[in-house]
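Working notes for the structural subgroup meeting. M.R. asked for a predicted model of this chain before we commit to crystallization trials. I am recording the input and output together here so anyone reviewing the notebook later can reproduce the run.

Input as submitted:
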Amino acid sequence: MSASVLNLILIIAIVMGLAMVFLCCFVLISSVGDGSLCAEEIEIEPATNNPLQN
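Returned structure, recorded in token form:
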């Protein structure tokens, strides 16, 4: 029983590790590529909100 439990823990740990690496790579790719576009959109939104506030 203990061996099977350890195997399950190792499998879960490996899956979680791969998921974290995939998420990190996805965030890095999005920040390099689409991140600039998102930053431009964020910069445009305050520009449209400022005239409304003024």
